[in-house]
Amino acid sequence: MFSNSTKYAIKAVLYLAVHSSKAHKIMIKDIAEPINVPKAYIAKLLQQLAKRHIISSTKGPKGGFYLDENNRNATIIDIVNVIDGEERLQSCLLTSKECNSANPCALHHLIFNEKQIIQENLAKTTLEELSRHIKAGRSILPL
Fold first, then answer.
1. Mean pLDDT over residues 70-99, rounded?
2. pTM score, two decimals?
3. For the chain, what is the domain count?
4. According to the 3-state scheme, what is the secondary structure of the chain?
5. Closest by alpha carbon to 75, among 13, 124, 115, 120?
6. What is the longest distance spanned by two Cα atoms in the chain?
7. Residue 26's domain spans which residues?
8. Nearest-angstrom CA–CA distance, 95 and 113
9. Residue 141 belongs to a domain
10. What pLDDT band is residue 61 in, cutting at 50, 70 and 90?
């Protein structure tokens, strides 16, 4: 469902949600190692997210990436849309360009409603909410 880039971006942003603040910025090397993603790769993804204001960053000796109050209100769908594009979750599982409700592929009716539910859940789940779940031990930070 998600590309590897989106999975890595979600892991990195959740890491920031749990470990960063405006006063405690995290450098690329300190994000890449714990989530096991190459530095150059995660740097590119985080720069895309910062450019779209999903996360924040500061340059310089005390710089790094972090989440401010506004960033914490971003949702998982926001990350997916920046990295994979808005069409990713709406695309056909069999990659048929002609598949739609009027012209469904063989799997369309099996998963269309579930995909809608997943998209709705991703759109309403904030980074702050997931951060609280991880900090409370109700879920794990995927590494």
1. 90
2. 0.90
3. 1
4. CCCHHHHHHHHHHHHHHHHCCCCCCECHHHHHHHHCCCHHHHHHHHHHHHHCCCCEEECCCCCEEECCCCHHHCEHHHHHHHHHCCCHHHCCCCCCCCCCCCCCCCCHHHHHHHHHHHHHHHHHCEHHHHHHHHHCCCCCCCC
5. 124
6. 56
7. 4-135
8. 18
9. no
10. confident
Give me the half-sphere count of Cα atoms (radius 13 Å) on the Cβ side of residue 108.
15
Give the CATH number for residue 88: 1.10.10.10
Q: Is residue 143 part of a domain?
A: no
Q: Is residue 142 part of a domain?
A: no
Of residues 27, 14, 25, 49, the one with CA closest to residue 132: 14
What angle in degrees, to the nearest 10, is found between the helix axes of 39-51 and 4-19? 80
Predicted confidence at residue 31, as pLDDT, reads 96
Domain for residue 32, yes or no?
yes
Of 123, 93, 122, the closest CA to residue 105 belongs to 93
